[in-house]
Amino acid sequence: MKRIVVVLVALGMAMSVVPAASAAEGTELANIRTGRHAGFDRVVFDFSGPRPEVVAGRTSEPYHCGSGKPITAKGDEFLEVTMWPADAHGYTGPRSFDTPGLLNVRSVTNTCDFEAHLGFAIGYAGAGRAYRVSFLDNPTRVVVDIDH
């Protein structure tokens, strides 16, 4: 009986200190789309919640956020796009794929889905290409354009 009381007290303390996560705190990946446009290739991440924060930067080799191991993907250079709070826990589409039909973008590869951080490496031909990250709403979309 004493053990049960200790466990219940510990659970009560943990629940009062650690706030419960709610759907309003993050957003869920719903779809990934790519397309070729005049002057740029586009990658669109559709979300089923509010707009996430986004950081993007170039890298010569993408790494998995959990293990730190390199990820094999097509591209001479990669744009690492990290979104938070966001996850893809319920996402059933492809997490890594090649992008035939686009002029420069060669691949889109999931690099992170951990602790509300969702990352993708977008591999492309050449190096130092200009890129833009923007948002669209209704539904929420993170749009990444990489110039030809």
Biggest pleated sheet: 5 strands, mixed
Strand order in the sheet with the most strands = 5-1-2-10-9
Integer-rounded radius of gyration: 19 Å
What series of H and E elements makes up the topology? HEEEEEEEEEE
Structural class from helices and strands? mainly beta
Number of strand segments: 10
Outline type: globular
Measure the end-to-end span. 70 Å
The portion of residues assigned to helices is: 10-25%
Tally the helices: 1
How much of the sequence lies in strands comes to: over 45%
Mean pLDDT: 87
Low-confidence segments: 1-24
Description of the molecule:
- This protein is mostly beta strands and 148 residues long.
- Helices cover 11% and strands 48% of the residues.
- The chain contains one helix and ten strands, in the order αββββββββββ.
- It has one helix at residues 2-17; strands at residues 27-37, 40-47, 53-59, 77-84, 86-87, 96-98, 105-114, 117-124, 131-136, 140-147.
- Strands 5-1-2-10-9 form a five-stranded mixed beta sheet, with no helix packed on it. It has a five-stranded antiparallel beta sheet with strand order 3-4-8-7-6, with no helix packed on it.
- A hairpin with a 3-residue loop joins strand 9 and strand 10.
- Residues 1-24 have low confidence and may be disordered.
